[in-house]
Amino acid sequence: MDTINNLFIYLFLSVFTFLLLRAVTAAHLRRRKTRLPPGTLGLPFIGETLQLISAYKTENPEPFIDDRVSKYGNIFTTHVFGEPTVFSADPETNRFILQNEGRLFESSYPGSIQNLLGRYSLLLMRGTLHKRMHSLTMSFANSSILKDHLLADIDRLVRLNLDSWTGRVFLMEEAKKITFNLTVKQLMSFDPCEWTEKLMKEYMLVIEGFFSIPLPIFSSTYRKAIQARRKVAEALGLVVRERRKERGGGERKNDMLEALFEGDGVEGGGFSDEEIVDFMLALLVAGYDTTSTIMTLAVKFLTETPHALSHLKEEHEEIRLRKGEVESLQWEDYKSMPFTQCVVNETLRIANIISGVFRRAMTDINIKGYTIPKGWKVFASFRAVHLDHAHFKDARSFDPWRWQSNAGSTSSPNVFTPFGGGPRRCPGYELARVELSVFLHHLITRFSWVPAEPDKLIFFPTTRMQKRYPIIVQRRSLFDPYKE
Ligand code: HEM
Description:
Elements: H1 2-32, H2 49-56, H3 62-72, E1 75-80, E2 83-88, H4 91-99, E3 105-107, H5 111-117, H6 127-138, H7 143-163, E4 168-170, H8 171-188, H9 194-209, H10 220-248, H11 256-262, H12 273-304, H13 306-323, H14 331-334, H15 338-351, E5 356-361, E6 365-367, E7 370-372, E8 377-381, H16 382-386, H17 429-446, E9 447-451, E10 457-458, E11 464-465, E12 470-475
Parallel strand pairs: 2-8
Antiparallel strand pairs: 1-2, 3-5, 4-12, 5-8, 6-7, 9-12, 10-11
């Protein structure tokens, strides 16, 4: 019922927006004699949205981009999610878009995401405040913080999670627990407990609402997401108030929340509770879903590529045999995993969990002989570049060895952008790499596994395994010759 309502409201909004935009755009283009990139706006009202969604709900969405690139070239016009959009599959154009954030382009998220994140989330901030908060976030996930204390937490929390594995395991679920617990620890120093488990359940409802129509009357998913958002904000608000009290008594912790207490707020002075809650809420969203998906997909690709898995096993068994069974990983161990880094890059390249980013043109922009009209949406597609044979040889195969030479690419190093670029480049890029490497280390040295049943990788509304990737695990010990 919810789906039918969604469809009706979507059609209604699309008709209205399409007519309005067509009138405005036609007048605008006549006035300015602009040369739009070639392409088609598709069907009246819905544009090419249904083609895009149906392609991205399959295991092979590539024809949607391939067909248009071969017809129109690397920059083309389409009409998706209610708006005419310039789609770029060109690395130079993508770079131009990312680097000109805040000057020629600004980030643009759907209404549903904006409402659920809250206005003080980093993803929605602009200007100098964004710059300041971006570097504050970076300072909490950079190499020296990782080396000095995050790595120990990552190692401990990954092992804690794996300790409970027996028989059939939903890898996607377990990976989510790991990354959620890690992010909570990093933000506010809580170890996994009943409270974090309850918080995670509410979070999942918030994320489901991201891709629904942001009208509570028509979408129960959105309604539930709004309620869950309120509960999450209340729970985080309580923590913030408690910690303020403790600070009054002189107690200090080494976490993100402490850094926010010490920082200059939006209006100068300290941050308000609302600002801190919005900021933390969004950081949890950005950090945990992405990294858990990449963990799951690395295991899937390795399972399907046994010679890569056995090469990786050699690397990790050597480290483990050197260290003994229980000793935790140190920074030097992380730095002695060259093939693991190839696997991490290749998983990021081929999985494209963030397939690209939407921006809005702040003014008329001329690029490569075309004009992107002011106010138009632009989509810089990382996926299209990562899977382009012109930039990566045999681009659609999982081949970690390609990263042993030429920075993976046959053209230039700038074509690999899984974490975006420019002022909004992902502040968690190094943290995600360390989390994935440590996870692979413990998984590979402690378990062997087989898929429990066939599963499917889909890409809409987000990249995910349809059945959460169930696997059957068997414990192994490098130190017990009778155990596999
Ligand atoms: C494999 C894992 C990850 C991937 C592929 C990824 C990818 C991305 C990408 C492509 C962007 C740029 C968005 C844009 O330009 O609009 C981004 C932004 C962001 N990421 Fe990540 N990310 C990952 C993990 C993390 C982690 C672990 C954190 C935790 C700190 C994080 C926090 C953020 C934040 C806060 C932003 C917004 C930055 C801004 O708008 O200034 N991400 N991420």
